[in-house]
Design goal:
The chain is an alpha+beta fold. The protein has one domain. Helices cover 27% and strands 30% of the residues. It contains four helices and eleven strands. The strands form three sheets. The protein has a seven-stranded mixed sheet, with helices on both faces. A two-stranded antiparallel ribbon has the order 5-6. A two-stranded antiparallel ribbon has the order 10-11. A hairpin with an 8-residue loop joins strand 10 and strand 11. It is globular, with a radius of gyration of 16 Å. The termini are far apart.
């Protein structure tokens, strides 16, 4: 299972961090994560609007949305899911299909020392260097490095808005 599970009182994201399909990456030592909506979803899709407005607010159409907890579960290849806590919306790129989100892990301070979480971060970091075999020199994995760069751009955009 991966993707979005929408419930009446929350939304759960089930994320693979091992690189098949979407390139979900942790940023800033795991405090943030990039995540992609499904191809059939766009900015006006009700579940996407709930996520964008997870703290409560108004949709792009002006409809009031109640606060909705967004909860994150991540897994590495061949492993079970790890609960990574509640997410805070940090930004999204509506011009990209599928939509790229950047989420803040609101429980980061609590989970950052947990071994299962540290294993996820280590697995994600290993994706940034590809080795053809254990003895070869690491070479950059361009897809993951590009995703990290794009995720950081969204974070910078949000921090500029906060300063204004």
């Amino acid at each position: 299972m991966s993707g979005i599970q929408e419930w009446k009182n929350s939304i759960c994201l089930f994320v693979n961090v091992y690189g098949e399909g979407y390139k979900n990456v942790f940023l800033e030592n795991g405090r943030f994560i990039t995540w992609f909506a499904q191809n059939r979803q766009w900015e006006g899709t009700p579940v996407v609007q709930r996520m964008i407005n997870c703290a409560g607010g108004k949709t792009s159409e002006g409809t009031t949305v109640k606060a909705t907890p967004v909860l994150l579960f991540c897994r590495n290849k061949g492993q079970g899911y790890v609960y990574c806590g509640k997410l805070g919306y940090s930004g999204h790129d509506p011009d990209r299909i599928p939509i790229r989100f950047v989420w803040e892990l609101l429980d980061f301070d609590r989970i950052s020392k947990d071994e299962p979480f540290q294993d996820l971060i280590a697995a994600c970091e290993s994706m940034f260097e590809y080795r053809a075999n254990p003895l070869s020199t690491g070479v950059p994995n361009e897809e993951f490095n590009e995703e990290r760069k794009e995720g950081k751009k969204l974070l910078k955009k949000k921090s500029k808005k906060k300063k204004k």
